[in-house]
Amino acid sequence: MLYYHIQKLSPEGKPAKEPVMLKFLSTSAVVSLMPLMLQAAELRIVTDLPPVHALVSLVAGERAEPVLLMDEAGDGHNFALRPSQASALARADLVIWTGPDMAPWMARALEGGGPSALPLLQAPGTRLRAWAEAAGGHGHDHDHEYHDHGDHDHAGHDHDAHGHEGHDHEARDHDNHHDHEGHDHAHGANDPHAWLEPANALYWLTLIARHLSEADPDHAGDYEANAKAAAASLRALDGELRDLLAPVKDCPFVLGHDAYGYFTEHYGLHAAGTVAGGDAAGPGAQHLSALRARLSEEKVVCAFPEVGQSERLLDTVLEGSSVKKGAALDPSGSSLPKGPGLYAALMRDLAVKISDCLK
To answer: Transmembrane residues, as ranges (predicted)?
Structure first.
């Protein structure tokens, strides 16, 4: 314990003979302040979407609690930060987000500088899938062209399932943005739902660990260990989902929105078409008519709506057909419990719902 030696003063202002020992601060009080001291040193990390938040949480572990800004399905163009979210963003040490093609609202928030930012879609080594030529692009084609941002070799990861040749890619933004309820983003040259490619998730774990280590070098070992453990878990999950989906690989189905190309191509699934294109804009009558004809031509088994989107157009296409309507899919995990377990839950949720309807 710590003490001050304090002397009484006599009425005349002279020191009294007897000292008075007063306890000033105990060691227990010092210990009680330690969590606050540690909390003050914690990395302040902000993320945009649930899948990114989950991956960052896996790597951060107990060292930080990342903030998730867009925790529900919403309009990516008109999404507005609450004051508390704007404050969290302003105080952040590091922002880890998808990129302007997926979250244009974050791009606007970061204009003019601010915290260090890592846009994952623009990271060298991220595999990007070009949009289908049309919203109804279909066929059992698994030779879809992928692009890598640079020559990154995804060290430490197994990519035998994707033998795509890497290409240098320059990110491009298009001006033709479309607003749509539930799921909205800028429509660039490439599909921004890249977290649905397990190879990207594995690469991002390593990339996130590197950036967290640079921001907090004292705990670099923790971040690296967390990333390796998470990667091992995701590889095991990937094998599990391959086994689950293998029996239904040749069963045709249609989707409400062209957001699942990474997932369907990775697992070799037969997506026969989509109601809406990648930007989720409303399709024309000609497209819907062609999609309806395809139901019988390709013997489509199931059709999947999407969480947060109207099922009206899908119901119109299916009217009078024998196609089953499956459970609504959730490509960003907006309806799932948020946290480090969300990414695995998201991938499993997609696989189980697709398998259940097709088998």
So the answer is: none
